[in-house]
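Tokens in:
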């Protein structure tokens, strides 16, 4: 009895140590950089964020996607299974959220805001740095695929939801086709499959841009959060954040099992699907007047709560600190 109790105590202490190690080495650096940027944004030391966001969208993020995929061992099967997983996650959470909204008799605007808060994740600003710290370069390669799919959905499905079914999807699709991220990801995959290589000057330039992508994403996250205004933290905001942080990981684990996903591809996909509410969802809600106060509340609450939920999920997936 004494030996068994001692073994359980040691296991508990070891688990607690692993939890705090993961929290301090993976989550804390992300929140610290984003927190500093948040402070700079709040104090108006950095007041113009759009240029940095566009630089990330049109240059740094595509460079990261290309370099990550071109240099990775992500095979065609994993590439497409991540795409299928990301799309199905939105479909499943959409059905769940719609059912909850109908059962609770939300009005149309609140339903739109609720769906936006649950369906779309911060796969880029938060998810890619997280995958870098937790899984290394190969994790970033897989996270970049998920980020690409999530961005496309945010620019189509999210716009449709925010405008309560009256948006111009043709214009939205045209905007998606202008984004370089998807092309960079596909091109990186092609270079990987064909074992092509770029001239050294171009490759090194892209590698420099890719190295800058992660800190730029975190600064963007902090600056975007600084623009969020706390308004109305009603119980339905906490419900949306709870589904995002507690139910979505369970759905992701079940879906990954159903699709037969394994190893690093499974871990990265589940983590990405469990990220907090996307800041982009808040921006879209603002643009289309879809209860942006509700969505931004979900962004703040889910981002803060994710420090605990993502760390626990990471440990569940078998993360072992180096």
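Residues out:
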């Amino acid at each position: 009895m004494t030996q068994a109790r001692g073994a359980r105590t040691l296991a508990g202490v070891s688990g607690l140590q692993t939890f705090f190690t993961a929290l301090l080495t993976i989550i804390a650096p992300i929140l610290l950089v984003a927190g500093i940027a948040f402070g700079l944004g709040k104090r108006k030391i950095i007041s113009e964020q759009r240029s940095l966001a566009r630089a990330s969208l049109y240059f740094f993020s595509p460079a990261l996607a290309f370099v990550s995929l071109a240099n990775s061992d992500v095979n065609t099967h994993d590439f497409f299974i991540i795409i299928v997983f990301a799309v199905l996650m939105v479909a499943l959470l959409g059905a769940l959220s719609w059912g909850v909204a109908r059962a609770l008799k939300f009005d149309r605007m609140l339903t739109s805001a609720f769906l936006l808060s649950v369906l779309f994740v911060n796969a880029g600003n938060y998810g890619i740095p997280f995958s870098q710290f937790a899984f290394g370069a190969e994790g970033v390669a897989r996270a970049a695929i998920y980020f690409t799919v999530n961005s496309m959905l945010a620019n189509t499905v999210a716009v449709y939801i925010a405008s309560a079914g009256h948006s111009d999807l043709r214009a939205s699709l045209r905007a998606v086709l202008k984004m370089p991220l998807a092309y960079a990801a596909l091109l990186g995959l092609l270079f990987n499959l064909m074992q092509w290589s770029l001239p050294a000057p171009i490759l090194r330039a892209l590698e420099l841009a890719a190295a800058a992508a992660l800190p730029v994403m975190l600064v963007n996250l902090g600056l975007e959060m600084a623009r969020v205004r706390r308004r109305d933290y009603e119980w339905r905001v906490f419900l949306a954040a709870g589904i995002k942080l507690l139910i979505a990981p369970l759905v992701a684990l079940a879906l990954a099992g159903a699709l037969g996903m394994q190893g690093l591809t499974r871990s990265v996909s589940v983590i990405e699907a469990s990220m907090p509410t996307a800041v982009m969802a808040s921006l879209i809600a603002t643009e289309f007047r879809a209860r942006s106060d509700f969505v931004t509340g979900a962004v703040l609450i889910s981002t803060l709560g994710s420090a605990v939920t993502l760390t626990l999920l990471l440990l569940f997936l078998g993360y072992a600190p180096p």
